[in-house]
Amino acid sequence: MEDETWLTIKEAALLAGVDVQTTYSWIRRGHLEVSGLDHRGRKLFRHPWTSRGPSWPPGPRPST
Q1: Which of 34, 42, 45, 48 is the most buried (most CB within 10 A)?
Q2: Which residue segment(s) compose the domain that 17 sits in?
C-alpha cells in the first residue's frame, strides 16, 4: 500500500521503547516479521498504526 509508513530496526525499537538488540531477538523468535528491505539491505517493518499486522510491541513486556 502506498500510504504505509516503514520503520528501520532502530526506529521500531525506539517506538516500542526497547533496545535494538531486543528487536533483533523478537525477529529471531518469530515475534516480529520483517516486511521488506531498503535499498541498502536494511530490514524494514510496517508502522503498526498503518498496517493490520500483529500487536505492537509483540508479546508482554517484562516488569521492571
Answers
A1: 45
A2: 6-46
C-alpha distance across the termini of the chain, in Å: 38
Cell for 61?
513486556
Amino acid at 10: K
Best CA proximity match to 7, nearest among 57, 39, 59, 42: 42
Tens digits of per-residue pLDDT, 14-60? Answer: 888 889 999 899 889 988 888 889 899 999 988 765 444 455 555 65
Torsion-angle region of 17 (φ positive above 0: left; ψ -120 to 50: alpha; else: beta)? left
Tell me how many domains the chain contains.
Answer: 1
